[in-house]
Amino acid sequence: MLAASRLALIALAAIWGSNFLLVDVALEGADPAQIVAARLWLGGAILLVCCLVMRRQLPRGWGIWARLLLMGVLGQALPWLLFAWGQQQVSVSTAGIYNSVTPLASLPVVWLLLRHKGSRGEVVASVLGFGGIIVLMAPWGETSRSSLAGQLACLAGAVCYAIAYAYAKHLISTLGYSKVALAASQAIVAGLLMLVVTAPQLARPMDPTAAVVGSLVAMGVGTAVAFLLNYWLIGTVGPLQAGLAFYLMPLVAVGLGIGVRGDVLHAHQILGAAVIFAALALQYAIDRHETLEGQGPQGEPEPVRVDVEPAYRSGDAGSVGRSGAG
Fold first, then answer.
1. What is the 8-class DSSP label of residue 265?
2. Could you please report the per-residue DSSP string of 245-306?
3. 20 to 30 A Cα–Cα from 45, which one of 108, 245, 285, 290?
4. Which residues pair with 301 in a beta bridge?
5. Cβ atoms < 10 Å from Cβ of 279
6. Of 143, 92, 107, 82, which Cα lies nearest the Cα of 266?
7. Strand partners, 127
8. Share of the chain above pLDDT 90, in %
9. Closest by alpha carbon to 40, among 196, 207, 152, 236?
10. What 3-state class would DSSP assign to 91?
């Protein structure tokens, strides 16, 4: 991997991982719905400008826009809202750890919705990861029960991402439009839906301190920049290497939570996070092994299999369904 690619990978992980810190700061003066709307509107506007500069055509047809609305809700608006609401009760570090569950949740989601079975190794990684979730959540503890709703909201947000990834190829990958145009369109249409569904929350007065406004702007800009970086990395080093940013993201979130917000992780949280990260490492090793097996003796790719698998591996959902994490 070239130096430029490494820098882009680190920057992508930093942007995704810092979103949890920015949400925590923004919650000091804004409602969760206001935070999500700002991210969608500003991120979508920047991507729309990119479409104009790159001369990418926006989608046409009500059917296509309906699909983009569904992806915008599942891959952006709803999980962002769940994480922002959950972070009113849980720390930056805890939210970042829950977000890392997405690849592990993709296997049961794909099996339930699309009846696609994973390999034995994938099943082991998924079971191991959910064991870590139980330890992390520790519903038997008094302290954990007080934040159980927030933890469940963050977990639901990760599951939303997994559902979006499972359907990304099925719904929008064959539309024939640029990924930049698709990402801009789904952010804009999801932002318009937020105007209707969360109008009372959006109308609440904000406390627009410099820190709150700066966090909202940083999240909106980061949403667009993260998409462009992810898109460039996938085309430069391939989806497997680009996917490393997602696995590094929770480490950034935990580091910022502890270093900036003074998060304190209890023993069960450290143990649960360690189990989840071990499951992620196993999942990445499986993906790498399958990628290498898919190459011929001279390093040439074998014919592509036609199957359905979690889109976070191919980068489609990372590019289209998700412009920023958390």
1. -
2. HHHHHHHHHHHHHHHHS-----HHHHHHHHHHHHHHHHHHHHHHHHHHHTB-TTSPBPPPP-
3. 245
4. 295
5. 24
6. 143
7. none
8. 35
9. 196
10. coil
- For the residues 282-292, what does the mean pLDDT come to? 74
Q: How many CB atoms lie within 10 A of CB 121?
A: 15
Structure tokens at 97: 């750890």
Question: Which residue type is seen at 110?
Answer: V
Please provide the DSSP assignment of 17-37 as one string.
HHHHHHHHHHTTTS-HHHHHH
Contact between residue 77 and residue 321 where contact means Cβ atoms under 8 Å apart: no
Place of tokens 């092994």: 289
CA gyration radius, the chain: 19
Spatial separation of the C-alpha atoms in residues 50 and 122, rounded to whole Å: 37
CB 195 within 8 A of CB 202: yes
The set of residues, in sequence order, having a beta carbon less than 8 Å from that of 285 and lying 6+ positions away, is none
For CA atoms 289, 290, 291, 295, the dihedral sign is: positive
Q: Which amino acid is at 53?
A: V
CA atoms of 272 and 293, how far apart (whole Å): 32
Nearest residue to 226 (alpha-carbon basis) of 47, 3, 97 = 47
**Cα end-to-end span (Å), the chain:** 27
Cα–Cα distance, 137 to 71 (Å, whole number): 28
> Coil, strand or helix: which one is 301?
strand
Q: Which residues pair with 295 in a beta bridge?
A: 301
The pLDDT of residue 172 is above 70: no
DSSP-based helix, strand, coil % in the chain, nearest 5: 75, 0, 25
How far apart CA 171 and CA 80 sit, in angstroms, is: 21
The strand ranges marked E within the chain are none
Contact 162, 75 (CB under 8 A): no
Lowest model confidence (mean pLDDT) among 1-15, 98-112, 122-136, 304-318? 304-318
| Rounded Cα gap, residues 121 and 35, in angstroms | 38
